[in-house]
Write a structure and sequence with these properties.
Order of helices and strands: HHHHHHHEEEHEHEHHEEHEEEEEEEHHH
Number of domains: 5
Distance between the termini: 138 Å
CATH superfamily of the largest domain: Ribonuclease H-like superfamily/Ribonuclease H
CATH class of the largest domain: Alpha Beta
Number of strands: 14
Largest sheet: 5 strands, mixed
Shape: extended
Radius of gyration: 40 Å
Strand content: 15-25%
CATH topology of the largest domain: Nucleotidyltransferase, domain 5
CATH architecture of the largest domain: 2-Layer Sandwich
Structural class: alpha+beta
Helix content: 25-40%
Strand order of the largest sheet: 3-2-1-4-5
Length: 431
Amino acid sequence: MLTEEDDVEIHALSARGWSVSAISRHTGRDRKTVRAYLAKPRPTRAPALSCLEPYRAYIVARFEDDRHLEATVLHRELVEAGFARAYTTLVGELRRLELRPVCLVCAHRCGDQVTTEIDHPPGEEIQWDWLELAAADTPWGEPADVLVGALSHSGRFRGVFCEQMTFGHLAGAMHEILVALGGTPRVWRTDRMATVVSPQTGRITPDAAALAKHYATQIAVCPARRAQRKGVVEAAIKYLTRSWWRTAAVANMGDAQRSLDAWSVRVADPRKRPLGTVGEIGAGEPLLALPAAAYPAQIIVERKVSRAALTAFEGNQYSVPAVHVGKTVTVTWRISEPMLQIVGAHGEIVAEHRRIPAGAGQTVRSAEHAALLEAAVLAAFTTKDACRRKPNLPPGDTALAELVRLRGVDARPAEVISLADYATLAEAAGR
């Protein structure tokens, strides 16, 4: 009997035109054996029955009840019914016999099922999404969020760095992106982000509705767990993360924003498409004109005042009176207004400054705050040595007297009688 390898070899040699004698000499097999194997297919044995055959009906019924039934649970039930094989054997046989049915709903959500391209007319839709960067992912050691807006037809996109994902940051970043793209499409498509869709009701929030009315657009919310519906912006985020962010030489958020803007124009827009570059197609989309001013959303963030009486906001530093050093204050700025305010813990306005463009890395300190800080520093200045940490300082007379008053006992140490005085008293008593 020939092995499987020999059987394959003699058929391959025969297909090349070798004679039976040549194959026999080459393989060392008898010519009658070679001829017999070439004349008809080698008989194969029927596969052995599976160890699951006695339990097939039960397994099928259980999978009809629950397509996602855990194999460990099924193995435990089969063992109780007399199954004497291991769990690994059960899993292998389930796969070989394909007994577990496919859940079409879950398979579709995995993204492996058939799909189709959605037709996006020019100027019809823009898709929004956040790129979240953890503190460990940024060179400046603080988390950052990048709002990305991508035109669905051309794929042209822009991004804006934000400190947080509040509604104020969202509204401000959206306006900057729309200005960079040259207008707004008729429909804004987003996922179910909390600043747009209420988690409790699943409806658009009043703030998001007012924002859409300001730009005369509609908001289309993707169904839950359907990221493919906004695949244009998902692809844009993947592209800018791999092509730009991983190699961007930036030191702070301002550097990152300037680098992203330059890369978008220099690298992302010139990508070639059948009808031209991405930038050319995007510039030709019929977008709606933007309103005269951005939506007046308010950005509110809490900050801790540094030892230099400065408050950080959007990559810049703004001064406050020295009495607020180490305290938590609230920075408020209404989009499009030139001034920002810093509010104390009790709701009082402690400082007001002209806002500097985000990421400029500048320090804004008023003359009044500088004088107050200088006075506070001079008042605390001393040339004395720092107090020692391990001196011996027992309670003084004032503390002991107060202790007597509190406890009603004499806290002074007991008087020690001299031995000489004691001897004098003893002699006097002996006379």
